[in-house]
Prior knowledge:
By secondary structure, the protein is of the alpha/beta class. The protein has 2 domains: 5-102, no CATH class; 105-265, NAD(P)-binding Rossmann-like Domain (Rossmann fold), CATH 3.40.50.720. It is built from 9 helices and 10 strands.
Amino acid sequence: MKMNWTGAAHQLNKQGKAYVIATIVGVTGSTPRNSGTKMVITHDDIFDTIGGGHLEHKVIKHAHQLLMAGDDCQQLEHFQLGAQLGQCCGGNASVLFESFSASGVNIMLFGAGHVGKALMPILAGLPCSITWVDSRADQFPDDAGNYHNVTTLVSENPAEEVALMPANSYYIVMTHNHQLDFEISHNTLKRADFAYLGLIASDTKWRRFQQRFQHRDIAKSLVEKMNCPIGLSQVQGKLPMEVAVSVAGEIIQLYQAELASQALANPSANKQKDAKPQSTKQGVAWQELKSLMTEEVSSSNEYKYSQRSRLSNFKEKQGVSFCPAK
């Protein structure tokens, strides 16, 4: 059974995927669904419905435009079902669009040991989506499910889970087993599309891994992209929290550098921003909401008057016809 809009929003938020919540916030006349009806739209799926037909088609199309823009925003749009959309209902609907952009970073953390437990609360507070992998279910803390952007994964073969991640993901390797660390790192290197691969290791362990990668025909240039020793060199210490802070700092430094690089790679967008003063307006303005409420009261009164006139003119008819959702 497909998830409803609440379940979808919760799941998409945990996964760090972009989505739009479309809510009918005002209706007048006959409409497919009532005020308060919601649906969730992603790039390639929808959850729940606001009634189908041309209205829903236009709402999905507008939501896709917001998703392509990739910004967090709120917009209020008005639809005339008869004049604009050709639906026989003939009413009016006002729809609030709430767009939630995708998380900037996808992270897979291998290992729920002391350092993993110290690191997770820090990562969970960052704009990222995290998959936390371990073969030992009892190692995950009881509150692991409380983080909105963390998914715990118990796997008998953690190294195979590397294949689940999208391109440009971040991999943090700190399991309880050296052979497992090697297999995870090896599978990640074979993908060759990682943004970050950090391995917790001593100098001796790292030298042995480099020799083994060479024997497995892994290109030296890929191995050189690994972050080992893991974490910022400026942050010293071997306590779990000290290592966790060092690793988190390295992750933050990397994705902030990527954001700066993207800004430099798109100078036209920067020029456009410089040419126009930045608007201080965010979300939906009060004037627009006030106008909407005024229009609804006026339209509602007109509609009631129209319905009374229609009923008085057609007294011989039995019952009142209605327009079902398409």
